[in-house]
Amino acid sequence: RRVTVGDAEVREPADPVFFSLQSKNTMPDKFSGDCYSQHPFSKFCVHKLIFELNALNKGSKSMLYKSLIFVLLIGGGITGFYFLFPRFSVNLLFGNEYLGISNLLGWFGLFITLFSFVYIISLYAISIERKGFIWLLILFNILEIIAVYLYHASLFQIVLMLTGIMFILFLILFIYIRYLDDGRTINNNSS
Fold first, then answer.
1. In the prediction, which pLDDT does 128 show?
2. What pLDDT score does 97 carry?
3. Residue 90 near residue 105 (C-beta atoms within 8 A)
4. What's the pLDDT score for residue 148?
5. What's the pTM?
6. Dihedral sign for Cα atoms in the order 141, 142, 144, 149
């Protein structure tokens, strides 16, 4: 399906919310129109804006960086609170019977924050019609499964290992995105 964005007519990319490896998948109609009235969550609006900027061959990386900073502030603040007050957090969220996991809460919060970074970078990459990184996501999922299968002596070991793997994935994806040409196509192959 082709859409008009400004004066340009472009092809819509694959739906970023429901990953699909099908090459001819297009965005559903729910992404058309005013995204604030249809979707109160900003990720949909940011995706649409990045798609439009990319369609007009304008830079969109600043949107990515702003999204990452937003997640860093929110996720970093919550994770910091979990590290500083783990027993209070567990007691507040789950009750006294789960105080035994309080030593895991900060590390799990860090894992989720890193996961959010990876999610944002993945949405960005799909918005600018880059799909090569999906194989990297699959590889790291397999790596996580193997690592949990081999090293599962304690929950702490699992959470720490998953956090490390997610950190490495985030760094690789960040470097991958950093060296793309600001959301514009590097060459004329748009496949």
1. 83
2. 93
3. yes
4. 95
5. 0.71
6. positive
> What 3 state SS string does 16-83 have?
CCCCCCCCCCCCCHHHCCCHHHHCCCHHHHHHHHHHHHHHCCCCCHHHHHHHHHHHHHHHHHHHHHHH
**What is the mean pLDDT of each successive set of 10 residues along the chain, which is 191 residues long?**
53 42 37 43 59 74 90 96 96 92 95 96 87 94 96 94 97 90 48 46
Coil, strand, or helix at residue 178?
Answer: helix
Token pair 């949107």 in the structure block, residue = 63
Distance from C-alpha of 85 to C-alpha of 46, rounded to nearest angstrom? 33
Question: How far is 146 from 44, CA to CA, in rounded Å?
Answer: 33
How crowded is residue 10: how many other Cβ atoms within 10 Å of its Cβ?
18
Model pLDDT, residue 50: 74
- The length of the chain is 191
Helical (H) or strand (E) element with 147: helix 134-150
In Å, how far from its chain's centre is CA 46? 12
Query: Which residue is it, tokens 């609170």?
Result: 81
Element (H, E) at 8: strand 8-11
pLDDT confidence of residue 18: 36
